[in-house]
Amino acid sequence: MATKSDAASAEQMQWYVLKVQTNRERTIKDAILKRIRRDGLEEFFGEIVIPSEKVVDSRSPQKTLDRKLFPGYMMIQMVLNDETWYLVRDTGGVGDFAGAAGKPLPMEAHEVERMLGKSSEQATVAPKVRISFAAGDVVKIREGAFENFEGTVEGIDEHSGKVSVLIDIFGRSSPVELDHWQVEIV
Fold it and tell me: Quick one: pLDDT at residue 2?
């Protein structure tokens, strides 16, 4: 049993990966936080993170959504002892800690930085546009000068929401750059 003399410092806390039920990550996170407060173990726990990225909804470009990077997984910062291990493991929806042979393995520092987006290259990333088609798909242009033309997606820029489509004009393939909402998959 942990006592106040075992009080955890930030240096002792490590990050672990939890396997949880998919599409229940937020409710499981809330349940863990509730159990931590109920049992008075706040000093042994840090952050609980569901790795996600911001994406722009293709149906309404002014709306951004959080898309889970790893559905069914979350990260938890904690001091691992018997009491904290059982608290987390006995929470409904939690499968197990990621690790080897049933023993939880803490994450490496560079993995934590990458997952939390604290590395310098990820600090300034703009939200991506969620696009429901990929390069090579046949699409129909819904709006604009080439309305009702069909073509093949040549490339997609998720940050700007632009789609490059090859269409046949007078027997020649010509690339046309369109907004993602101007095309639909056939």
Answer: 44
